[in-house]
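Lab notebook, entry 538. We have the chain sequence and a SMILES string for magnesium ion, and the next step in the workflow is to get a structural model of the bound complex before anyone spends time on docking refinements. Request logged below.

Task: model protein plus magnesium ion, output structure tokens.
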Amino acid sequence: MSDAPLLTLRNLRVTYPGDEGDFVAVRNVSFDLGRERLGIVGESGSGKSTTGRAIMGLVASPGIVEADEMRLAGKDLTSLSERGFRRLRGKKVAMILQDPKYSLDPVMSVGQQIAETHRCHFRSSARAAQEAALEMLAAVHIRDPDRVYALYPHQVSGGMGQRVMIAMMLIAGPDLLIADEPTSALDVTVQHQVLAIMDDLVRSRGMGLILISHNLHLVSSFCDRVLVMYGGRVVETCMSGQLSKASHPYTRGLLASLPELGRRRAELPQLQRDPAWAEG
Amino acid sequence: MLALEHVTVSYGTGLGRIFAASDVSFQVEEGASFGLVGESGSGKSTVLRAIAGLIPHAQGRVILAGREMSMRRSTAERKMVQMVFQDPYGSLHPNQTVDQTLSMPIAIHKLGDSDRRISSVLREVGLGREHRYRYPHQLSGGQRQRVAIARALVLEPRILLLDEPTSALDVSVQAEILNLLARLRRIHRLTLLMVSHDLAVIAHLCERIGVMSNGSLIELATADALASGKVSHGYTRQLLRSNRGFDRSGAEIVDVTS
Ligand SMILES: Nc1ncnc2c1ncn2[C@@H]1O[C@H](COP(=O)(O)OP(=O)(O)OP(=O)(O)O)[C@@H](O)[C@H]1O
Ligand SMILES: Nc1ncnc2c1ncn2[C@@H]1O[C@H](COP(=O)(O)OP(=O)(O)OP(=O)(O)O)[C@@H](O)[C@H]1O
Ligand SMILES: [Mg+2]
Ligand SMILES: [Mg+2]
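Result returned:
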């Protein structure tokens, strides 16, 4: 049982019905995830967030989620009710959403929101929850936890908001963390600090991590494996640090479009998409 | 084109008072691009918001095209400076379609010719007709950011303030947006002020770069100096190191300013 992967996906498909026909956002995505760090990269709209949301049971209706197999810690997700998913979320699987401020409650201080999550999951006392929240804020390298605890979402900077979200997701101690662009609003040094925290949780608690990011260098240097998505499909899987050796023309195109320090170009090469890529 | 003199912004009073920006001064020539980098919470967005006239209690002087701005801006002054916000989800109204989002500034500034302006600006940012009547939640993160840029561009401003304009974008769209910004700058002599955590992005577009820490501008450097590592401040060096990918040793270092 302990060898069974934490997460198994076989032919995951997500469809959004529309007036002009159905739009398939995720097409036959399959992978296994152990207690490891899996990266997902790919252009905007390629289906990265939708894949994460499907695992969380958060694809909004009328979106349709189908899969031959979808299992999390032994539990079958394909037949799980909304209520079942609600019980799973937080404790078993948590997702740091791409737009942090949007998911924070504007009328509650950020510290209270983290404490509330702690109380909810551990039935802790107000005092213990507050202490845990302050500790968590410090753990995500918020410099002045006492001050930031009392701030409302509109009063924190972009990077602080993102770390608040991360603290809120980590405080419940999930088995699987799906982090959707968790560090895009952070400066690079804090980015690395936050990744180091997640890395510790993967190592010490055996958490599984799915890191969705546009930052190719970051993902490739941090993750054990990287999935490259295009048009809802996984077009290539690369091992850690091997992204620069990727063979798919799409992945190569993405790498080529990165600006480089010390190599000023008037124009960056833009991706020329080949319709054949979408066919798989 | 743009000059800041001793711009200071504080929040709170007494012991709880913090300086989000303190005594920030710099200049940007017309048609030039200036980049701001610095750790989270160092005051980068605050500086942009002060330039945009969004912080009424800001102190110091903001001079645009030779004219000192009062903290309450006229409609014409507001049209001149447009800002793309850091958080594209938060800055787009969830109940408004792309079309409505773009119509609003055109109506407020009485520019007319709404239909043509909207379709042309959507084309400029790489969105199609199929996106025009969608709501934000029906767009991917990158598509939403393009809408936010389109909203700023639709007023044809002289100065564009960009707060992390590409950090939510995938690298292929990032290349498109960076090329777009470079082209707009060339064609319209647009002046750009950009905040980014990605030094390669900043150095690609900006010839001068300011480094912020704890509300202050601690270093001014050229992109070339940055690329060749000729920087004096420890934090700037750390930024350079972290730009090369994840490295635990980079994570262990505590902020130089704390
Ligand atoms: N509720 C919805 N209704 C219709 N289409 C949707 C909906 N949600 C997402 N989509 C579409 O599904 C596709 C995949 O979206 P998704 O958010 O998964 O992309 P992504 O890879 O996360 O992109 P980004 O990097 O920009 O965040 C996009 O084309 C998007 O427009
Ligand atoms: N309305 C407010 N009330 C109180 N404090 C504020 C308010 N707005 C900003 N601050 C504080 O001012 C400081 C600077 O914030 P700012 O948003 O300018 O940072 P930033 O450099 O843009 O950071 P990031 O890279 O994380 O976006 C932060 O400590 C923030 O908490
Ligand atoms: Mg996404
Ligand atoms: Mg900011």
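Notes for the group: Chain A touches chain B through 61 residues (CB under 8 Å). Worth checking against the assay data. The CA atoms of residues 166 and 248 of chain A lie 33 Å apart.
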